[in-house]
Amino acid sequence: LILQRQQQQAGPNDQGQRNAVSGSSGKLLVVDDDDVLRSFLVRRFELDGYVVHDANTVELAKRMLHEDVYDLILLDLMMHPQSGYELFDHLKEDPTFRWIPLIVLSARNDVHDKVRCLMLGANDYVTKPFQYEELAARVYSLLARTRNFEQLAFRDPLTGVFNRRYFDHQIELELHRTVRFPAPISIAFIDIDRFKTINDSYGHAIGDLVLQGLAHLLQQHLRATDVLARYGGEEFVVVLPNASGGQAVRQMEEALAATRRQPIVQHEGQSFSITFSCGVAEWTPGLPTAQWIALADEAMYRAKQQGRDRVLL
Ligand code: GH3
Ligand code: MG
Ligand code: MG
Ligand code: MG
What we know:
It is a single chain. The chain has helices at residues 2-10, 35-47, 58-67, 84-93, 111-120, 132-154, 164-180, 195-202, 204-220, 245-261, 289-305, and strands at residues 27-31, 51-55, 72-76, 102-106, 124-127, 185-192, 227-232, 235-241, 265-267, 270-272, 276-282, 311-312. By secondary structure, the chain is an alpha/beta fold. Helix 3 packs parallel to helix 4 (84-93) and helix 8 (195-202) packs across helix 9. It is elongated, with a radius of gyration of 24 Å. It starts with a helix and ends with a strand. The relative contact order is 0.09. Residues 1-22 have low confidence and may be disordered. Residues 32-34, 76, 78-79 line the site of one magnesium ion. One magnesium ion binds next to loops.
């Protein structure tokens, strides 16, 4: 009965309501064993601009979570053979998934279920049958809040690149992924050469522009999967998944060549150029994260000692 009512609500209503929530974007995972409801949700959310994947069992959802990155999960509680609760357990165990926003969809309007889900980490609980518009608004609002929060918590306000907190979090996730799907992975430490001289000669404001300029230039020389973070004052760090030490060195050398070639800042008719020193380290199985970072830092230090303006492994 509930399903039929949902179908009726879904059917004739959805003409002409395209993009009810404009500007929506993100990748959603819909986990529900009800084929009709699931394909309805996929279609409606796609019309609203989302990328939507769907799974009809917990087992399939688990596999999909390991193969793709999702911004939000819509999870049905009553499924067979495993209930939605079993996906909760799986999400909680893995740091990669723990923070994915999650909305429970349930036919049970039961306070114990609601409390249990919210205590387990669900962000919202929507009772079936529901109006699509209400669910879409909840999804939109949860994604917007999550993004705002991430912006504040994980971005460096001066340069807009990720901050150290994000790097510390992300490096563990990347290592998890590397253990699951073996591939080389490297990090690169970057420290601006004689940055004090720039601050001392031209002032702190120019120094800040240099940091912004370098962040921008580095970003242009990285792949979409590379993670650039400001590690400290004038130090940046890059995580390069799927890159051996040698590949990472070549990539950073290209970035350094570009840095050398063009002024990093142009301000009131003056041009400012810099170089940097960079240390690269490839992860090897069993190497603790702290030691991996120390290896890159040591390589960077050697680059300084050998005269700066170079990339060392
Ligand atoms: P080296 O080649 O050995 O790295 O020399 P350096 O002068 O770059 O190194 P040092 O660590 O002595 O100086 C780093 C300077 O970076 C010191 C500090 O004033 C400056 N700095 C750190 N954070 C900021 C910032 O946010 N803005 C500006 N303008 N300067 C910063
Ligand atoms: Mg169900
Ligand atoms: Mg430094
Ligand atoms: Mg420096």
